[in-house]
Design goal:
By secondary structure, the chain is an alpha+beta fold. The chain has one domain (32-109, 143-316, 354-458): Outer membrane efflux proteins (OEP), CATH 1.20.1600. The protein has ten helices and seven strands. It has helices at 2-19, 67-79, 81-102, 146-212, 218-252, 261-265, 282-288, 290-311, 352-418, 424-458; strands at residues 48-51, 107-118, 127-141, 277-280, 316-328, 331-334, 337-344. The strands form two sheets. Strands 2, 3, 5, 6 and 7 form a five-stranded antiparallel β-sheet that branches. The protein has a two-stranded parallel ribbon with strand order 1-4. The protein is elongated. The two termini are 54 Å apart.
Length: 465
């Protein structure tokens, strides 16, 4: 019993030391200078407002007031395969951390065996029944922190994978919203094209009637018919793009193409955007963006990995213990036991350990530079998204005015052509300009919403459930 207590005492001491294992390094500074506010918002603009205390929106899609989009987001978060793959990577990293953490604790194994036989002189030329059982324990006393550093590195990698999974969630939300607005844009483009096509067909009928009356020429008829055919040729392209957007949305939801077509079939008007959008400060965005946090945790893991490589220069101290029971028929039982300690010190390895340290140091520099690059790209993403939204807002106002002007011009051209005050060419040009202006405005409305999605995504919104 005393021997068993000795073995348990060794194991308990190992648990106490392992409980003091280092955790992953704390947040690391990227050394990238960050401004107090966004340069694109240096001038006052009613569309975008920045506030140092503003938080990042994590349910930003609700600002669009679209129940269909809300439903698509919920379904995508539940069924998207990329998101599920990212979750599986997190589970793998958690298991790897468990593997690394296990090295801090004793390894205890048990064994038992039984045999029957005659060992000649060893058993007095008798047949005996032999049985034995044993418990073996071994533990590496991590006095120089190698295993603790490896555990800390595995913990940081787990944190980076968790942040990477959150980044996948952010990207998924953005892709669902972008494809949804593309879908609505193509729907609107198809409706506008069909409406303009109907008007052009009416113009063609009028021209054909005038040809019968000798007022118009066959040249006018052919030119009008050519414009009708050109407009008709737009529809297959728009419908193909519409179908591609529908298929893509089905895949993002994690279902085969065609599964959710009925949900997406009903055209829906886009709700006007909010007059003002509140934007978080650069420091807040960098603290929230999951891709930045993932890069920072990878850098932290490289620090611990270098510590583990450096610890290989120091001795490895191992403790062992065993206790067993042996018995044989007709022979008194035995209780073998033992405890021991071992030390292994690298002496000559021809620079292997130093090279491993150098390699770990190089990986640490790579991780730090990757961290800095991620921070810079995050700042770039937000500045570009803000610029795109502001410029598209101005463009959208001008396009709205152009549509109203072209519509009025087309009406006047048709009236004047009917009364003989203008040529057919003026009518065709006016109708073509109207179609182009309406198509540009529809695309701008979709781009405006996609640019707003880019702002929310650049801010890292959406990763928090």
């Amino acid at each position: 019993m005393r021997r068993i207590k000795t073995t348990l005492s060794v194991a308990f001491a190992a648990l106490l030391i392992a409980s003091c294992a280092t955790t992953p390094p704390g947040p690391q500074n990227s050394d990238v200078p960050v401004a107090q506010s966004w340069s694109q918002l240096a001038e006052a603009n009613p569309a975008l407002v920045t506030n140092a205390s503003a938080a990042v929106e994590h349910d930003w899609w609700r600002h669009f007031g679209d129940p269909t989009l809300d439903a698509l987001v919920v379904e995508a978060l539940a069924g998207n395969k990329s998101l599920q793959i990212a979750a599986a990577r997190v589970e793998e990293a958690r298991a790897n951390r468990g593997i690394a953490r296990a090295s801090l604790f004793p390894e205890i194994t048990g064994g038992a065996s039984a045999s029957r036989g005659n060992q000649g002189f060893l058993t007095g030329d008798r047949t005996l029944n032999l049985a034995e059982a044993s418990i073996d324990a071994s533990w590496e006393a991590d006095l120089f922190g190698r295993n603790q550093a490896r555990t800390a590195a595995a913990g940081a990698i787990l944190q980076s994978e968790e942040a990477a999974a959150q980044a996948v969630r952010v990207a998924l939300l953005a892709e669902v919203a972008r494809n949804y607005f593309d879908l609505r844009n193509y729907e609107r483009q198809i409706v506008l094209t069909e409406q303009n096509l109907e008007t052009q067909r009416m113009t063609l009928s009028l021209t054909q009637a005038q040809l019968q009356g000798g007022v118009s020429s066959d040249f006018d008829v052919q030119r009008t018919a050519a414009q009708v055919s050109t407009t008709e040729a737009l529809l297959p392209v728009l419908r193909q793009a519409h179908d591609a957007a529908v298929n893509r949305l089905n895949i993002l939801l994690g279902v085969p193409p065609g599964t959710r077509n009925a949900v997406l079939a009903a055209p829906q008007e886009l709700r006007p955007l909010d007059a003002r959008v509140l934007v978080a400060a650069p420091a807040t965005v960098l603290a929230v963006r999951p891709d930045v946090r993932a890069a920072e945790r990878r850098f932290a893991a490289s620090i611990s990995a270098k510590d583990a490589a450096t610890a290989d220069l120091f001795p490895t101290i191992s403790l062992t213990a065993f206790f067993g029971l042996q018995g044989a028929s007709g022979v008194a039982g035995a209780t073998p036991w033992g405890i021991g300690a071992g030390l292994l010190q690298p002496i000559l390895n021809f620079g292997r350990i130093e090279s491993q340290i150098d390699a770990a140091d190089a990986r640490q520099r790579q991780a730090f530079l990757d961290y800095q690059r991620t921070v810079l790209e995050a700042l770039e993403n937000m500045e570009t998204a803000l610029s795109s939204y502001l410029r598209e807002t101005t463009r959208n106002v001008s396009l709205s005015a152009a549509v109203a002007q072209d519509r009025r011009a087309a009406d006047l051209a048709r009236q004047q052509y009917t009364n003989g005050f203008t040529s057919l060419l003026d009518v065709l040009v006016a109708e073509r300009d109207l179609l182009a202006a309406e198509a540009n405005q529809a695309a701008s409305d979709a781009n405006l919403r996609k640019n707003l999605v880019a702002i929310y995504t650049a801010a890292g919104g959406g990763w928090q459930e």
